[in-house]
Amino acid sequence: MTLFTLLIQILIILLVLFVLKIVLISIFFFKEIQAARAKDPAAKGFLEILLLYPGLHALIHHRVAHFFYKIHLFFIARFISQVSRFFTGIEIHPGAKIGKRLFIDHGMGVVIGETAIIGDDVLLYQAVTLGGTGLVKGKRHPTIGNNVVVGGGAKILGNITIGDNSYIGANAVVIKDVPPNSTVVGVPGRITKQDGKKIDIGLDHSHVFDPIMQNIEELQKRIEKLENK
Ligand SMILES: CC(C)(COP(=O)(O)OP(=O)(O)OC[C@H]1O[C@@H](n2cnc3c(N)ncnc32)[C@H](O)[C@@H]1OP(=O)(O)O)[C@@H](O)C(=O)NCCC(=O)NCCS
Fold first, then answer.
1. How many angstroms separate the CA atoms of 13 and 110, rounded?
2. Minimum-distance ligand 1 atom for the alpha carbon of 184
3. CA-closest residue to ligand 1 atom 11
4. Model confidence pLDDT, tens digit, residues 125-161
5. Which residues contact 155 (CB under 8 A, 6 or more apart)?
6. Which residue's CA is minimally distant from atom 46 of ligand 1?
7. Containing H/E element for 83?
8. Average pLDDT of the segment spanning 3-25
9. Rounded to 5 degrees, what are φ and ψ at 215?
10. Alpha-carbon span 19 to 24, nearest angstrom
């Protein structure tokens, strides 16, 4: 056998393995690919998502890493997660529990912590952090409900729960529980819509936890008093 025929054989084997991998991913991640297609208006086709979407690749790696994590092979689990991070820019701790049909759009800079739990049909944009707030052990990362959208750059911190069907605005910092069907924006995050209705932040003190807003409101009241005099 010449070196040339050996090389051809190796190439054919690699090609077959590649095709096999593509077929397996298409079968096992069909719904995730469909979700990406539905949620990304820029997506042009099945093969494009399958081969070129970092969010999908990070998810595939995570499923494998999570398997090793569950059987306590932490080093291998972490190794897979770090390789995935290198190629996709998305860091998912192997311990994170992720539901069905997650779509991470763009993906770069996404960090998902060890005890984070993500429900079904969630959409995360780039630079989202599902992180902890300190050095506490145990459950210290958020739980994200079903059908939640987390905008680019948003930080959801601590052992809090984001209710089903909620929207977290781009760059929001959320540090308290969010009830279902809410829209949260700003730093710190405040609820601006619930069950499709706008919330008057001025009246809704239970949801205002912004000290700057509170100071401004107090100043406003004092000015009104002075003006009335
Ligand atoms: C939060 C979000 C879901 C709100 O959508 P919506 O329900 O249509 O809300 P509206 O656009 O009616 O905005 C409601 C109020 O919140 C404000 N707002 C909206 N998004 C905001 C944000 N990210 N940060 C701060 N304020 C925001 C609006 O200015 C508006 O204020 P007003 O009532 O004083 O006029 C949306 O604005 C958002 O941030 N989506 C994330 C998108 C994203 O990250 N895309 C990345 C693509 S690469």
1. 35
2. 1
3. 169
4. 999 999 998 788 899 999 999 999 999 999 999 999 9
5. 128, 129, 131, 172, 173, 174
6. 152
7. helix 74-88
8. 93
9. -60, -45
10. 9
CA distance 206 to 104: 32
pTM: 0.85
Biggest CA pair distance of the chain: 102
Distance 197 CA to ligand 1 centre (A): 14
Q: Specify the pLDDT at position 147.
A: 97
Given a contact cutoff of 8 angstroms between Cβ atoms, the answer to whether 92 and 81 are in contact is yes
Does the pLDDT of residue 209 top 80, yes or no?
Answer: no
Q: Is the peptide bond before 41 cis (omega within 30 degrees of 0)?
A: no
CA 229 to centroid of ligand 1, rounded, Å:
39
Strands (DSSP E) along 73-137, which ranges?
A: 91-92, 97-98, 103-104, 111-112, 117-118, 123-124, 129-131
Residue 125 beta carbon below 6 angstroms from any ligand 1 atom: yes
Helix (H) or strand (E) holding 194: strand 190-194
The residue contributing the CA closest to ligand 1 atom 38 is 169
